[in-house]
Write a structure and sequence with these properties.
This protein is of the alpha+beta class. The protein has 18 helices and 24 strands. Among the domains are: about 180 residues, 2-Layer Sandwich (Heat Shock Protein 90), CATH 3.30.565; about 130 residues, Ribosomal Protein S5, domain 2, CATH 3.30.230.
Length: about 650
């Protein structure tokens, strides 16, 4: 059934593609009701084939019954041309390559009017005029011309993406609106269709089956998705709408998308034709998989792998192994790629270091003081080299400066510390002693520099960490960064065995409502795996004696009640995927360093070092981006220096 002008365009473009055309030109006038003209350079038809194409249920695309269960063409029902001809004035001109002359056939609302030979190029030209001219009831329910043209535009863009090696041109009322040349490549065509110029995340995954593959590109999760940049799905060259594929893509990006946001980009799945049924929808826009569970898992894993690869790309841009700046004339430490243990390290002792006033502090013997002389680059101390800073962030602990208070945190010279300074080299402000060289952790010949290559500028509003990354300015949300690190650690512990717990020095008594008591009793096993030990104490009172190790002593009660709230949420009851991920994300959020927490330069260095070693770090588990960078060109534009 022909519902609107876009239905005509879709059927005729599919016929052109099935005919092997590599150039398709579309002209539309009057929103598609006055004229639809489609010209291709495909294989063409002779006179007999043209007349047969107007017969009901006639098709050249199905030869035997086996083709019905393994459909490889876009069009196959054989009803498109006669249906269109019955509601319009339709002219078909076509010539196959082996004929010198072509044939023109004219139908007037389903009645054959004229057949004659004509000179024409190889291919097919179809003109559909005065659509719904004799069916005013159907024409009455069409939308505005702008809406109808929008549907036509969407059809052309979908098939342009499905076939990047084919040239497409769309003219509306003699004005060219789309021109997509062949051979530009899928990525370039996707950018043209979505009007997007920034980074795309490639998806390329082959399964164990040589006949099943997925490829495409996704928008970075933090990008807002407009109508033109939504997720476009394809199967074997056919644009479709499928809940299995869209849900699998969403699950693959779980933990990277903000609530209410959906993926954007392009995914093209290729599977054997006998593994799906494309004949379940009159417009062939929906499909049915023989094994939808396998397809869902395959797409989800492919998207997850693409995100992990994207994380490595970002990491190589900002968190490459520390190399000393050429202007300092230093060489990199050959031990910088040594493995870092995150399970066996339980202490991190700070080496004797100088405070920002230029005085050497050892343990708690020195008292903090303010500078009495102007700060200059020569008086800015280096960060101490630490052997295992990452372990403290992964275990949820903050770095504690032994016996000294942290300096104020503004974006000032006091917080600037060149990370590439060799701490084992004596300076005027930091004299070396035999004790420093031999016994201070993280110094001497066995010293290993941190994994990042950033120069810390400072902390702003006790939330944002400003760093220099080459010629770029990098801004990091300290809470989001730490939250992602803790979340990944929690998820790894939960899936392998159980989350590490610690006994409370003073067990807490909590009063629970009847609903909360029911949640505790129904989820005891899950609570134990999450590191909680809770026992009935009488009445509505329960004793909380152990909590996840990362929670610390202070946040135990809050995390426990948040976890109970997660078990009782409607999202938990009805979610098929990620129902526990939200609870783990809440636990990580409560335990992570907060907005307003003042970090010392050593703590910042440890956090950056841990991010550089993490597999996933670019977004917090709730989908907020962890870092943003601004190039030198961006800054110049802001200040009109270009």
């Amino acid at each position: 059934m022909v519902e609107r002008p876009a239905s005509v365009v879709k059927e005729l473009v599919e016929n052109s593609l099935d005919a092997g055309a590599d150039r398709i030109d579309i002209d539309v006038e009057g929103g598609g009701t006055r004229l639809i003209r489609i010209l291709d350079n495909g294989s063409g038809m002779d006179e007999d084939d043209i007349l047969l194409s107007f017969e009901r249920h006639g098709t050249s695309k199905i030869h035997d019954s086996h083709d019905l269960v393994a459909i490889s063409t876009l069009g196959f029902r054989g009803e498109a041309i006669p249906s269109i001809a019955s509601v319009s004035k339709m002219t078909v001109t076509s010539r196959p390559s082996n004929n010198e002359l072509g044939t023109t056939v004219f139908f007037d609302y389903g009645r054959l009017q004229k057949v004659h030979e004509t000179g024409c190029s190889q291919g097919t030209l179809i003109e559909v005029r005065n659509l719904f001219g004799k069916t005013p009831a159907r024409k009455k329910f069409l939308r505005t011309q702008r809406t109808e043209l929008g549907h036509i535009d969407e059809i052309i863009k979908n098939y342009a993406l499905a076939c990047p090696n084919i040239s497409f041109t769309l003219r509306v009322n003699d004005k060219e609106t789309i021109r997509l040349a062949a051979g530009s490549g899928l990525e370039e065509r996707l950018r043209s269709v979505m009007h997007y110029t920034d980074q795309l995340i490639p998806v390329e995954s082959d399964s164990t089956s040589p006949l099943r593959s997925l490829h495409g590109f996704l928008l970075p999760p933090e990008r807002s998705v407009g109508a033109s940049a939504r997720l476009r799905l394809f199967i074997n060259g056919r644009a479709i709408k499928d809940r299995v594929m869209s849900h699998a893509a969403f699950e693959g990006l779980r933990g990277f998308l903000l609530k209410g946001h959906t993926p954007g980009g392009y995914l093209h799945l290729r599977i054997p034709t006998d593994e799906l049924d494309v004949n379940v929808h009159p417009a062939k826009q929906e499909v049915r998989f023989r094994n939808s569970g396998d397809i869902h898992q395959f797409i989800k894993q492919s998207v997850e792998a693409a995100m992990r690869s994207h994380q490595n790309t970002v990491k190589s841009s900002f968190f490459t192994s520390r190399q000393l700046h050429a202007d300092q004339g230093e060489t990199a430490d050959p031990t910088e790629h040594a493995d870092i243990s995150d399970e066996n390290t339980t202490t991190w002792q700070q080496q004797p270091q100088q405070d920002f006033a230029g005085e050497l502090q050892t343990g708690g013997d020195a008292s903090p003081s303010r500078p009495t002389a102007p700060i200059t680059p020569s008086t800015i101390p280096p960060l101490p080299k630490t052997s295992e800073p990452a372990a403290y962030w992964e275990h949820g602990h903050r770095f504690q400066d032994a016996g000294s208070s942290s300096p104020d945190k503004g974006i000032t010279a006091q917080t600037v510390a060149p990370l590439t300074h060799d701490a084992s080299t004596p300076t005027a402000e930091q004299p070396a002693t035999a004790h420093d060289q031999s016994s201070a952790p993280g110094t001497g010949a066995d010293s290993r520099p941190a994994s990042h290559n950033l120069q810390i500028i400072g902390q702003f509003k006790n939330l944002y960490i400003f760093c220099r990354a080459g010629d770029n300015l990098l801004v990091i949300d300290q809470h989001a960064a730490h939250e992602r690190i803790l979340y990944e650690k929690l998820r790894k512990q939960y899936t392998t065995a159980r989350i590490a717990s610690q006994n409370l020095l003073f067990p807490e008594t909590v009063e629970l409502s009847p609903f909360q008591i029911e949640l505790v009793e129904n989820n005891r096993e899950e609570l134990a795996r999450m590191g909680f030990t809770v026992a009935e104490f009488g009445g509505n009172s329960y004793v909380l004696s152990a909590v996840p190790a990362l929670a610390g002593q202070g946040a135990a009660r809050d995390i426990f009640f948040d976890v109970l709230g997660g078990f009782g949420s409607e999202e938990y009851k009805h979610s098929h995927g990620g129902k526990l991920e939200n609870i783990l994300a809440t636990m990580a959020c409560k335990a992570a360093v907060k907005s307003g927490d003042e970090l010392s330069p050593q703590e910042i260095d440890a956090l950056l070092n841990t991010m550089a070693q993490a597999d996933l770090f670019s977004h917090c588990p709730h989908g907020r981006p962890v870092l943003r960078y601004f190039s030198e060109d961006d800054l110049k534009k802001w200040f009109l220096r270009t």
